[in-house]
Amino acid sequence: MNIQAIKRVLLLVGFIMTVSLTLAQNREVAQQTINTLCGEDFSGRGYINKGDSMASAFIAKRMKDIGLQGYSSDFLNPFLLNVNTFNTTQVKVDQKVLRPGFDFLVAPEAKSAEGKYKVFYVSPKLLSSSKAVKKVKSAIKKGFIPVLCSYEATNKVLAENAAKIKKSLSGAIFIQLKSSLTWSVATNQSKNTEIELLDSLFDRYASEIKITIEANFIKNYASQNVIGYVPGAEKPDSFIILCGHYDHLGKMGDAIFYGANDNASGIATMLDLATYFVDHPQRYSLVFIAFGAEEAGLIGSLNYVKKPVVPLASTRFVFNMDLMGSGDKGATIVNGSIYKDEYEALTKINTENDYLPLIKSRGKAANSDHYFFTEVGVPSFFIYLMGDYTFYHSPNDSPKNLKLGQYYDRSFQLVRDFIIHLN
Ligand SMILES: [Zn+2]
User: Fold this and answer.
1) The 3-state secondary structure of 280-328, one letter per residue
2) Does position 73 have pLDDT exceeding 70, yes or no?
3) Span from the CA of 294 to the centroid of ligand 1 (angstroms)
4) CATH class in words for 29-83+219-422
């Protein structure tokens, strides 16, 4: 090899090392972003201890530090929502204190309840009988708490009878056994208190259950989206939105739902992309939005679409990122089968660069913040990554369990290249 060739090789090696070093540094920053957003003081980015405001203030500061511009001086885009919250959730079965979030959940719309009750176990046999409703009602009158057996949703008789019982019990407290627990957020409060308890932990011969649930329904809670942008170099009045939701489920009594994958990971990726595009402005303006109250029913993005900050007619594309922490099994693109040209471009970028092992497309789905944009005619994609990491809406979705790997770098590059392609 001559000197020139050696120089060329050294330059190439240097270039590759710089690229992978930068990506490794980015990954470290992204992991730190996730760790911060999942810190105890952020209270699961919900509506207890102002977790949502703590998170949005942190994201606004990061946007400023990165060098994004704001449409308002504080980068915040406020809205209101009604939300049911839980200050205390305690359940004791005989002498055993159950762990909130892991052993039991309080139904998101439940109201406050307190008391000590004798157990009335509703077995599959009883639940399938026509006398189930009557028997449960008379048990409640005698001071018992009904504990409904767990059943498959496909078992129509049991499912229908359980629904009938729940509908007929106004003001009742009852327990539903479940094979697994998945929590969410409600924007209403019901007349009942339903507690979901892990079936595998419940002793059918338990005699007494003690409950303390303190629910607080908040009307017109003030939350917010966070918005920053990079002006377009050629067409600043046309826009591409990159977004993800920063909120999660918050706290249920002492249990914190951290939401590391859902969706601290998407915010980390979005801030990483913002950092890149501040240094590499594109033809169109790039708008970065961290949406609030997604888990409460896409409320932040719905408010944005009703009162857009940049005109929807000039918004060329919305790219929403949610669940960006894994990727070892590839990615799914919601709306991939609707915007076929863009989907083809995205899969071409992926194949040519060997980024992710698989990309799947789906039709439209109301499952994240892209949805209301699609409904008003703004083209959008929603990307979520797939992998062995399956903790979802559980306190186990935490930074202790979520460690970003090489697929973080690859999905970052995929999104970056696709945004450049759209320009
Ligand atoms: Zn999510």
Assistant:
1) CCCCEEEEEEEECCCCCCCHHHHHHHHCCCCCHHHEEEEEEECCCCCCC
2) yes
3) 7
4) alpha beta
